UniProtKB/TrEMBL annotation:
Keywords: Dioxygenase, Metal-binding, Oxidoreductase. One of its GO terms (molecular function) is metal ion binding. Residues 1-133 form the Lipoxygenase domain. PROSITE patterns: LIPOXYGENASE_3. The keyword Cell cycle does not apply. It comes from the Eukaryota. SUPFAM superfamilies: Lipoxigenase (SSF48484). The keyword ATP-binding does not apply. This is Lipoxygenase domain-containing protein. It comes from Oryzias melastigma. GO terms for biological process: lipid oxidation.
Amino acid sequence: MVMFTCSAQHAAVNSGQYDFYGWMPNGPPTMQEPPPTEKGTVTEERILKTLPGISIIILGMATSWVLSMQAHDSSFLPDFKRKYFTEHMPCDKIGIFQKKLLKLSKEINKRNEGADLPYTYLDPKLVENSVSI
């Protein structure tokens, strides 16, 4: 569970932040007006008055961009380093785990073929093996 939370779950919620929030109307960092209380009362003018100013938008986009970036020294799930283990059993288990991850990666890539918007955030080859912020 710890491995999943610190790798795959983190990648699922973190990696796509800029892809989604880089377009500010998807998730404005602040709102300048209260939300509507009745259905059908929203107008384009009200939406525009609700959105934040450009300086807040830039800060929000920059924050989501920084949080979505991969570290320059990233280490990914299939690249588990064996140098810390010398016994046969952990090395064998790591090898089995790596093979399963690479198989999963191939399945994900096959599923994404021809997709208008491929979902790559949980491809093990792209999932960092730890939270790195």
